[in-house]
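Risk register update: the risk that structure generation would not scale has been downgraded. Supporting records follow, first protein first.
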Amino acid sequence: DLKRRVQLFKENQRDGYGAIVVQSNVEGTRMGEPEYAINTLGVECVEIKWGQGAKNIGGEVKISDLTKAQMLYERGYVVLPNPTDPAVVRAFKRGAFKEFERHSRVGMVTEEEFAKRVESLRGAGAKYIFLKTGAYRPAALAQALSYASKYGIDLLTVDGAGGGTGMSPWRMMNEWGVPALELHSLLYQYATRLAAKGRYVPALALAGGFILEDQIFKGLSLGAPFVKLIGMARGPIAAAMVGKTIGRSIDAGQIPVYVERFGTTVDEIFVTAHEVREELGEDEYKKLPAGALGLYTYYERLGQGLRQLMAGSRKFSLDFLSRDDLAVLTRDAAAVTGLPHVMDVDGELVDDILDA
């Protein structure tokens, strides 16, 4: 499946822009997935994940196929219930339950092992190495940033516990960890301290519940000048799924009323359809699933909205976004972020103007 996914990305990559990043959890590392991706599939960028991505635990996937569940169990994953237990197999076949849970093992980090892993990946031919960590304790965040600095990691992603991946929402995802705003504020503090010492600070990415353009603006500004990217998952996935659902409703001739007011065909409903048709050409456009148009349209909306917000702030390039573009509405938020309360913004400048 990894080969299929990489090939799909390569076939549809436009103008050489972007990159395929292969993540690796505990089991994937043991099985040599990153090395396979680099040496066999030509992947240049790999990402080390601490824990189970943005989570300290809970890296679960639902499996509805018995054969696949057994294969994953044999590869070392924790699969619940045990798909090799004859009693479990019989219960599944008679419909007592419909799905298995696949859990990844919990990762434990030491500096020595991290250094060895980075060296091993570089030796295997990785051109870029990323690190992804989550809403762990402040000491773990400091550790991630320090190791990323010391061992030349290209990008560090810090993912807030937004309460929803896998089988979420559930109590563990909602209640564990440092909340995203506090987490990302700590990240800025730590990056500032490293930079003040003249140490290398990798490019930083924030993730965890970013969905709309105003949130992207805030994230980039909050972490400026260190934060270069905003990581997103649920928003784009939802956009693709909505596009797919609309496509199916068109094919079935059962378009919901709230969608039908925009039109009855893909070209009428998706405002970006004409742009995509012109970009791809008629033949390639016809092969495009409606989900892809949903995703493209969503990103166009984000881009246009972000440009509007930036123009309103008189910032005409992402490079110019800064913490000065933000203010907070409560004193508590000011204490957490280090940003000024809205009533204190431009205080000295206001005095200069009025007292002139």
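Supporting record for the second protein:
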Amino acid sequence: MKYAVSAPQADLLREIAAASEAMRIPPARSQTAWALEQRGLVKRTWRGSGQVAVVTADGRYFLNHGRHPQQLRAEKERLEGDGAQAALAPAGGAELVSRLMSASGRKITVPDPAPKTRGRWRAAYYDALHNGHVPDGHKLRWNGRQRGDCVFILVDEEPGKAAQPPPVPTVDVPEVLDRPHPLVHATRKALGRSQGTVDTRGRAEVIPLHVSRPLADRALRIVHALLTEAESRGHAVETQTDLQDGEAVHTLAITIRGHAFPLVLTERTTKVPHEPTPQELRQQERKPWTRLPKYDEEFNGRLAIGAPAKSWYQHSYSYSDGARWTLESRLGLLLQDLERLAAEAERREQEQERLEAERRRRWYAALAQARKQQIEQHRSKTLIEQVGAWQQAAGIRAFCQAARVRADGTPVPAEEAAWLEWAETYAAQLDPLQHQLQTPPDPPAQREVLRELSKVDTYAYPWPFDADGRWTLVEDEPADELP
């Protein structure tokens, strides 16, 4: 049973207790009244179309003492049995660990123990912790040190350690660049002795930077360490020039497994209130309707490296200085992200290639099946035509024989005899059995015919048949049937 009472519940309880008779409960507060009834503080009943409630003895006790009487009784019973329960607690850390080793799931729960019992379990826990009773490779955990249930768990750390990924290798950034990377050398040369903002994002064959001058040296050292580490892992580093919206865009990219990941190093900015210049003030006096900017963007000393804005990989990988770390400590994670993205891209390409190969195989199998069906239809049509011609020839011969039998030995008139002679000659021409039978030649493999039979786009892949209808693609042998 819950003993705690919320502020709305306490307010309603006081209103019910102050009423001289059963108080009608508004529908909006029926849930609150139900909660009080569950705690035994009020009794509810229906009267007419609504509910009424009266306070119970436990409710009045709660209002006078601020605690539920059953809570006091439970605490009293718990304290009365504290000594007996404390005697059941482990005598030391060794016994606690022994019990945990034999317990189901290596877990022991002591339901809300009294102070003496909790103290005995606490002493056993610290004895096991500080006197070497916890087995190697295990960790002893304890929840409920001050209140509530005491839960002791003996955790095997080996499976967790085995499941943890290996640590990310760090990338060392030199304090001084004695032998800078060729791209770093070219960028440093392009900067010269300029003292203003460093912005090389629009230049070719250099590292794209956008930082304040005091951070230029640190930025170059970071990029040097990153590029050197990438090349030592077998990745390619190169500058690229692409065309976007009709303009040349120069980028620096690390290419991993054939996938290029562009990078740009910038210094983050912070919004600060804009301070009007004398020129802006004079211009506003001449043109009062003009508006001055409210804020300016100022460099804040935090470097960031990642994919350029509006690129395909924008927001896919980016690291910067933080409150508790520096960008130098995140270079290993950056390379790990790039290698992960390259592996994912390679898996996607392999999957696409597999799906494309399967589509190609099914397409050729469908064409092969359609070609087989076309040949079968052509042969069956030829056979039916031959049988029909044979039957027609036999009928003509029977007709001629019946005409001669009708004469009953009398000479057949010349005109009739000529007609019957021609009919017999025509029957001989129709009869396919008058010459040697052979399989008819296959029909040409026409795209339109095979499209109707296969129900596929016959222009999707190279046509596998030659002019005589023979299969010509050796690498795509026709399948007997679709899977």
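Residues 479-483 have pLDDT under 50 and may be disordered. On this basis the risk owner (M.S.) recommends closing the item.
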